[in-house]
Amino acid sequence: MKITVIxxxxxxxxxxxxxxEIGNTVTCVDKIPxxxxxxxxxxxxxxxxxxxxxxxxxxEAGRLSFTTDLSSSVxxxxxxxxxxGTPPLPSGExxxxxxEAAAREIALSIDGYTVVAVKSTVPVGTxxxxxxxxxxxxxQPFATASMPEFLREGSAVKDAFNPDRLVIGVESQQAADxxxxxxxxxxxxxxxxxxxxxxxxxxxxxxxxxxxISFINEIAxxxxxxxxxxxxxxxxxxxxxxxxxxxxNAGIGYGGSCFPKDTxxxxxxxxxxxxxxxxxKSVVEVNQSQRWAVIDxxxxxxxxxxxxxxxxxxxxxxxxxxxxxxxxxLEIVPKLVEFGALPQxxxxxxxxxxxxxxxxxxxxxxxxxxxxxxxxxxxCLLTEWGEFVNIDLAEVExxxxxxxxxxGRNVYSADRIKATRFDYHSMGxxxxx
Length: 433
Ligand code: NAD
Known about the structure:
Distance between the termini: 58 Å
Keywords: NAD, Oxidoreductase
Family: Belongs to the UDP-glucose/GDP-mannose dehydrogenase family.
Pfam families: UDPG_MGDP_dh, UDPG_MGDP_dh_C, UDPG_MGDP_dh_N
EC number: 1.1.1.22
CATH topology of the largest domain: Rossmann fold
Bound molecules: nicotinamide-adenine-dinucleotide
């Protein structure tokens, strides 16, 4: 199958590479020339484990190429996948300007029957909008489809090749047949449905996962007060198959380019049809206040943060990615600065992206976790990177001025902490105080 993927971000690039790997001929298009130049030199503009190797293999095999000019591949393509960003507007609604621009550009180049599938996360009704934009600009035959993406940054390659399920929203059998042919090598769990339901499945899934996170975080806050251990509670809950064990890790809440944006967008989508999504509004509120638990715990331990050196371990919104969009670090570090602290920050790959979003002379960028902890009055662990989880805590304690550890992700066991002199605070595990 000949495929054009528009947008070479986390979703577009990973999907393009994946579809090439299973034997299709894929052209990835981006409007940013620097990205395409990097890709054409064999470099991946994002950090995603395992991606570069498969990408290079497929470029070498002649199945994968990169361009800024969609008109070079669109006329030949059986399928065009739109994977551009849908960032939030100030109102919380998804900004559809990139989707609409892509639809216009596609319309000017399609030649013969083509399926145009939207992989970006878009509000219900967007595919109809794409359909009408294309129809207004061309008389070539085409069908639109919704193909929402569920991959997770950090494990995107694994997720692309082993999806739990794939959702295909279509209005015609011809489009369904093409998309089934494309996806069948990847999974048998294919949900074929109408376009509006497919669009909604994506928002409902992310909203539900966000709800699980805020739920366990509130349970953690109660555990802190009643002397229960949230890890044990989550373990006991998760063994119930109706509940499931995933997304029950208490901590400082979710971030990233999807959950915050998609929860806000769904609240807005509901609001547009005069439905007040009270539950989801609370999920968002809980997530926001959860971030301040780190600051509260620091203030409880140190009294004041003025002139205190605070190590910040982890800036990415989660491990194994360089993505800092809506990361807790982008609120917590400025708050530390506001309180007069001197943050010594370290992240294995996300420091440059963080610095582009927020910088301040009070911040020192350390070259590793131990360097960040040197002479500090406390450490805040914000991202559960393996190198923080597996670090020798005795070595860390030895370089600190004051061994206080605020573990925002509950990564250390009681046994490991008991072997140290750390004044240790985690989320909802008061017995480990
Ligand atoms: P991104 O911002 O990393 O990448 C989008 C890319 O599209 C950019 O490189 C941009 O230059 C390019 N682009 C925009 N308009 C273009 C045009 N007209 N022609 C060519 N290129 C264009 O975004 P992302 O994280 O890959 O997310 C894309 C979509 O997928 C969003 O709707 C997002 O909500 C959704 N999604 C993201 C994830 C994730 O983990 N990142 C997971 C599931 C779904």
